[in-house]
């Protein structure tokens, strides 16, 4: 997401009042009036319903809350519509819009939505970004104003896609082609080419959004059992040079709750792997 919030922690502001001819009075925390949480469904979608653990793709536009406006929408502070890049992430696990800085109101609003559905949510600060703040930013030539600490926000959400959560205890694989060369075991030094996708239960081959590949580039050199996620090593182990496998890796043997910049929290992954060499 090109317009990702780059929020930084900020302490709550305090006002120090000084009496005439006297010392400073006890600091008093600034209280920012907050609206109630409110969700309005403007369009009901159809198809799969977003539930906890599902991977969702969503477009959104965020505004500072303005109590003087009928719809509460003040200055626009971010937008995937403007960037042209929707957000994909795991809903219901406290990882939206990012795992490092989640906003509880996102999960509460997106759960129960269906693709094509639209909701507008008014989020008080404690359901948005709390005391965190963000400076003014420019994205794709568009300047967005700052998000002050303790800001209430309003979001227009459009759900694009839902991929149901996949629950499997361990990594599984299918041999697409059995090799004829040396066999890779734990501790073997190997080189491989691979392509990785987010698991998509709606796709025929379960290959959703591609997040990485080195096909056509430099092969990955790795020692089986170290340097890569557990599921990747499981997928390589037992392969022979020249072989190809499709490997499905659950979050517990992938990137787990942390995820990466391109892999949402708690994602099941699909890899196509070709074993090139074993030493």
From TrEMBL:
Per its UniProt record, what InterPro entries does this chain match? PPIase_dom_sf, PPIase_FKBP_dom
- Taxonomically, the superkingdom here is Bacteria
Coiled-coil spans in chain: none
| Record-listed E.C. numbers | 5.2.1.8
Q: In the record, which residues are listed under signal peptide?
A: 1-24
A GO molecular function held by the record? peptidyl-prolyl cis-trans isomerase activity
Is the Nucleotide-binding keyword given for this protein? no
All copies of the PPIase FKBP-type domain together span 53-163, 187-279
Q: Which UniProt keywords apply?
A: Isomerase, Rotamase, Signal
Show the catalytic activity.
[protein]-peptidylproline (omega=180) = [protein]-peptidylproline (omega=0)
Tell me its family.
Belongs to the FKBP-type PPIase family.
Q: What is the protein named?
A: Peptidyl-prolyl cis-trans isomerase
Query: Organism source for this protein?
Result: Duganella flavida
């Amino acid at each position: 997401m090109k317009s990702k919030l780059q929020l930084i922690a900020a302490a709550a502001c305090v006002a120090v009042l000084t009496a005439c001819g006297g010392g400073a009075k006890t600091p008093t925390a600034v209280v920012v009036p907050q609206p109630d949480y409110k969700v309005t469904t403007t369009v009901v979608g159809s198809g799969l319903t977003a539930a906890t653990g599902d991977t969702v793709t969503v477009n959104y536009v965020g505004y500072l809350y303005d109590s003087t406006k009928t719809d509460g929408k003040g200055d626009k502070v971010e937008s995937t519509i403007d960037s042209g890049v929707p957000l994909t992430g795991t809903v219901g696990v406290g990882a939206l819009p990012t795992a490092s800085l989640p906003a509880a109101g996102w999960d509460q609003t997106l759960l129960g939505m269906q693709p094509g559905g639209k909701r507008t949510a008014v989020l008080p600060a404690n359901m948005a970004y709390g005391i965190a703040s963000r400076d003014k930013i420019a994205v794709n030539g568009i300047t967005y104003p700052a998000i002050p600490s303790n800001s209430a926000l309003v979001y227009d959400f459009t759900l694009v896609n839902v991929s149901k959560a996949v629950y499997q205890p361990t990594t599984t694989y299918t041999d697409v082609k059995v090799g004829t060369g040396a066999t890779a075991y734990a501790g073997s030094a190997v080189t491989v080419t691979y392509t990785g996708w987010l698991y998509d239960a709606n796709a025929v081959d379960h290959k959703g959004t591609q997040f990485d590949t080195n096909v056509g580039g430099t092969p990955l050199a790795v020692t089986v059992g170290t340097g890569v996620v557990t599921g990747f090593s499981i997928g390589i182990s037992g392969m022979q040079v020249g072989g190809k496998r499709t490997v499905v890796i659950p979050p517990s043997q992938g990137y787990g709750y942390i995820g990466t910049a391109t892999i949402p929290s708690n994602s099941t992954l699909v890899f196509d792997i070709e074993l090139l060499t074993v030493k």
